[in-house]
Known about the structure:
The structure is a homodimer.
Chain A: H1 2-17, H2 32-45, H3 50-58, H4 60-70, H5 74-99, H6 106-131, E1 140-141, H7 148-173, H8 182-204, E2 207-208, H9 213-244, H10 255-258, H11 273-304, H12 326-348, H13 354-388, H14 399-428, H15 434-461, H16 466-474, H17 478-485, H18 493-496, H19 509-533, H20 538-541, H21 543-549, H22 551-582
Antiparallel strand pairs in A: 1-2
Amino acid sequence: MRTVAQKMLQTCNKLFSRKTPNDVLEGHPSNIETAAQMDNIQHFSSPPNPSCVEAAREHAHHVEAVIERAHHGGGWLLSGIICINILILGCALVSGSAFNSVAITAVHRQIFLIILLLLTMLWMLFYTVVTSRKEQAVVFKDSHAGPVWLQAGLVLFGLLSLLMDIFKMATYVGYLHCDSAVKVAFPVVQAVFLFVQTYFFWVHAKDCVQLHTNLTRCGLTLTLSTNLVVWMAAVTEESLHQTEIPELNVNVSHKMYRASYGEKKCKCTFSVCDTFKEAFYYLYPFNIEYSLFASAMAYVMWKNVGRLVDDHSHHHVKFRPKEVCFGPFMGILLVVAGLVTFIIYEVDILKEDEGHRNRALLIHFVMNIVIMSLMSLSTMIGCIVYRLDHREHVSEKNPTRSLDVGLLVGASMGQFIISYFSIVALVATRARGYLNALNLSWAVLTVLQLGLQNYFIIEGLNREPFHVMQEAALHTNAHAFQEHAEMSTIIDSNKSSYCLTPSEDKPNWKRRVLKEVCAFLLLANIILWIMPAFGARPQFDHPTEIKFYQFKMWAAIVNIGLPFGIFYRMHSVASLFEVYLIS
Amino acid sequence: MRTVAQKMLQTCNKLFSRKTPNDVLEGHPSNIETAAQMDNIQHFSSPPNPSCVEAAREHAHHVEAVIERAHHGGGWLLSGIICINILILGCALVSGSAFNSVAITAVHRQIFLIILLLLTMLWMLFYTVVTSRKEQAVVFKDSHAGPVWLQAGLVLFGLLSLLMDIFKMATYVGYLHCDSAVKVAFPVVQAVFLFVQTYFFWVHAKDCVQLHTNLTRCGLTLTLSTNLVVWMAAVTEESLHQTEIPELNVNVSHKMYRASYGEKKCKCTFSVCDTFKEAFYYLYPFNIEYSLFASAMAYVMWKNVGRLVDDHSHHHVKFRPKEVCFGPFMGILLVVAGLVTFIIYEVDILKEDEGHRNRALLIHFVMNIVIMSLMSLSTMIGCIVYRLDHREHVSEKNPTRSLDVGLLVGASMGQFIISYFSIVALVATRARGYLNALNLSWAVLTVLQLGLQNYFIIEGLNREPFHVMQEAALHTNAHAFQEHAEMSTIIDSNKSSYCLTPSEDKPNWKRRVLKEVCAFLLLANIILWIMPAFGARPQFDHPTEIKFYQFKMWAAIVNIGLPFGIFYRMHSVASLFEVYLIS
C-alpha cells in the first residue's frame, strides 16, 4: 500500500515537474518540507488528472506523516527559539520593573510592549494581505481549531479590554503634563492591536497554512509570546495595584510596598481621573483573559502550520436537548441559586459592617460547597457509567484534541494551585472558626471536583462517538463489523454486540445518564465561571491566607491562578458540550 | 496491508484463546490496552507457531499505534492526576514553610517528604520483587533510555548526596536535646532512598513495562513527583541558607530575612557541628542535580510503559577518534585553560582583599567570554555546513529522541533565564565599570551560544546518519535507492547522488567539519559543566544583580536556573557525542 502510494506520488510529480514554473519554489530544494509541500500544492492548484488528485487525497495520511516529521526542521526550531527569547526577556523586564522601580520603570516595559505589539501587527497585516491571499496558501482548514466559544470569548474580552484601554487613555491624558507620553501611547497601540488581532483570529484561526511556513511559524510564535508578555505584565500590574490599596480588614503593613509609590507628586488635571483609574483596574482581569485566549489560539494555529487535514472525519451531530431533563433542570436551579447568592455577596461584601461581610462570605462558601459536592457526586456517577460502558476508544490520531486536553489540564493547574495553597494555610492555622472550616471544605472539594472532572472529560472525549457505532451497526457489512471488532475478539460476544442493540430514537440508560451528567456539569461550570469572572474574590475578602502567605505572595498566586481557573471553566463548558454530543 | 495484518492477528488470537489460561487477564477485558497487551504477551511467551510471531513482530508498528492511543486510558490519566496533586501540595508546603516559618516549620515539610520517600521505596521494592520478576513483564528494553552519562551522573551525584546526608545526620544529632528528632530521621530515610532509587534506575531504567501497567504508571509518577518535591525543598533551603550568610561585599540589609532565624537558642553539643553544617550546605547543589537526574529517568520510564520497541533500529557505530584532530586539540586547550582559571578564581575569590577578588572575577569573565565566542563561532560554522549538506531528515518516529530534545530545550531554559535577568539588570544600570561590561558581554554571548547550540544539536539529531546512507549506497538495489530518493525526485540528480560518492574510509570535508565542531563543542561543554558544578558562583560574587533584584529574588533565580544549566551542559555533551557518531 505504501509503495503503491509512493509510486503514484512520483508519477504525479514527474507529470507536473515539467509543467509547473519553478519560481513557485521557495527556499532550498533540499528541504523535505518544501518538497512535500510542492507535491501537495501542485496536486491541488492545477489538477489536470483527477485520479491523481484522488490518489493524493487518499494518501493524505501518508504525506501527513512526512510533513509532521518535517516539523522538526528549521522553521519549527527557529520559531521556538524566538518564542523562548522574547518570553524570557519579557519575564526579566516585567520582574525587573516590579522589583526595582528605579532603574526599570513602567515606561521601559511599555516601550518594549509597544515594539512587540507593532511587530505582531505588521506580521498579521503581512499574513492577511500576502500569504492568505494566494490560492495555495490555505488549502486546508482545521474544523476543530478556533471553536465558537473561544471566538466568542475573544470578542467579549476584547471589547472589555478595549474599554480598559479607553479608560487608561483618559486617565493618563490627565497626567501628560508631568508623566511620560508613553503611558498614553501604550493603550492607543494596544487598542489598535485588539482590533487587528481579534479580526485576525476571527478570520484565520482555522487555517492550516501551506505557504511561507517558516515565516508563518515565526510570526505565530511572535504573536504567542507577545500575548504572553502582555499577560505577564497585566498580572504583575494588577498584583502591584492590589498591594497598593489598603485592605479593609487586613492588618498587614503595606509600608514596605507603598514606599516606592508614595512619592506621587504628579496630580491629575481633571477630577474624574480617580474614577477612571478605579474602573480600568476593575477591567484588568478581562484583559488577562483576552491574552490567554489569544495565546491559546496562536498556539493552535502554530501547531496547524503545514498540517494536511482530511475534513470528512468531522461528523455533524444533531443537538437534541429533549433527550435529557433532570440534569438541565438541576443545572438551571443551581445557576439561578448561584446568581442570587452571587448578587447578595457582591452587595454585602462592600459594606463596612463586619457582620454583613461575614454573612456574605458564609453564603458564598456554603453555595460553593453545595455546587462542588453536587458536581463531584454527578461526575462520580458519570465515571462509574464509563466503567460499565464498553465503548471503544477513538483510534485515529487527533492533534487538536490532544492539544485541547493539554490546555484543559494546564488551565486546571491554576485552580489546583489556589486550592492547595488554601488547604496548607488553613490546616497549618488549624482552621479555627466556622468561616475557615467552610473555606477548607470548599478547597478540598474543589481539588476533588477538578480531578474527577478532568478524568470525566478526557475519558469522554476519547470514547468512540455513539452515532459512529450506530452507523457501523446499520451498515451490516461484515467487513465494517470486523474492523470495529478487531481488537475486541477476546471479549465475549454478548458484550461486544451490546453496542448494536440501541435503536436510533431511544437512547439506552447509560447514554441517558451520561448526557444528564454532562448537561448538569455544563451548567454548573457556567455558574462557576460567572462568579469569579465578574468579581467575586473571597480569596481577598477572607484574611487567613493573606496573613499566612503575606499579601504580596498571595496576590501573585491568586492573580496567576484565577485567570487560568476562569479559562478552565469556559473550556470545560465547551468540552462537556462535545462529550454530550458524542455520548 | 493493514487488513492483512488484522486478519493475521485475529487468527493468532483465535488460536491462542483456547490454550491460554484466563487468569493471566488482569483488569477489565473491555480495556483495549489489556487486550492488545494480551495479544502481544501471548505471542511472545509461548510461540507455538513461528510464522505468527514473525507476523506480530513485523506489525509491531501497527500495534504500537494502538498501544499509544491506549495511553490516553485510565492509568495514564490517573497517574497524571496523582503527579499534579503531589507536586502542587508539595509546592504549597515548601512555599508555606519558606514564607511562614511559624505555622509550617521545616519539620512539617520533612515529615511530608519522609512519607513520600517511604511510599516511593515501597513501590520500587514491589516493582523489583513482583512485577519485573514475571517473564512477560519486560519483554522490550528501550536502548535509548537511561544512557550511560545519565546513569553515571546519577551514581556520582548520589554518592555526594549520601555524603550530604551523613553530614546532616552528624549535625542534627548534636541538636537532638533541643530540636526535633525528625531532622535526624529525614537524612536517614533519604540515605536509604538514595541507595534504593539508584539501584532501581541502574537496573530498570531501560524497561518498557508490559504488566500491571496502570500501577507502574502511578508508581513512576509518584517517583517523579517525589524527586521534584525533594528538588523544590532543596532549592528553597539553599536559597534561604544563602540569604542567612552575610555576603562579603554586598551592603544589602539582611535584617529582614534574618529576623525569622535570629532566635536560635539551641546550641550544638559538640564543636565540629558548624563545620559539618558548612560542609553539607556546600553539597546541596549535588543533591539538587541528583533529583533532576532521577526525575528525568522516571519520566522516560513512565513514557515507556506499555511501549513496544523493535530493537533492530539501533545501529552500532564505531567511534573512531582519529578522524578528527583540530577540534579535540582546541577543545583540550580550552579545558586546560578553563581549569587553570577556575582554580585561580576559586583561590582568589575567598580573599578579603577587594583587588584580588576583582582580578578573579575579571579572569573568570574573560575566560567565559573567550569560551562562548569560540563556541558560537564553531556552532555557526556547523550550522552553515548543515545548510550546504543535503542529508535527509530521519523519517521514523522516535519518542525517546523527541523526549531528549524536550529535556535539552527545557534544561537550557535555566541558563537562558539567568542570562536574560543579568542582561536586564546590567543594561538598566548602564553597565558602569569594566566588570559590568564584561558580565554583560558574557550574558549576551551565552544567550547567542545557547540558541545556536540548541539549533545545532536538534538539527544534527534529526539528520539521517551517514552510515545508513552509505549502506543504502552499498546495496545497489534499485528498490532501496528508490525508497531513499522518494521525496527528492525534484532535486536535480547531481545533488541527490552526492551522498553516494564518499568512500568508506575518507570522510568528505563536510562530515569532517561537522565532526570537528562536535568534538570541540563537546569538550567546551565539559569545562562549562565543571566550573559551576564545582562551585564557581560569579552570580553571587558580583554585586550588580544582587543590588538590582534584591538578594532573595536573585538567589531564587540562580538556585533554580543554575542546576538546570548544569544538567543542560551534561545533556549537551551526551547529545553532541551522538551527533558526532551519526555525522
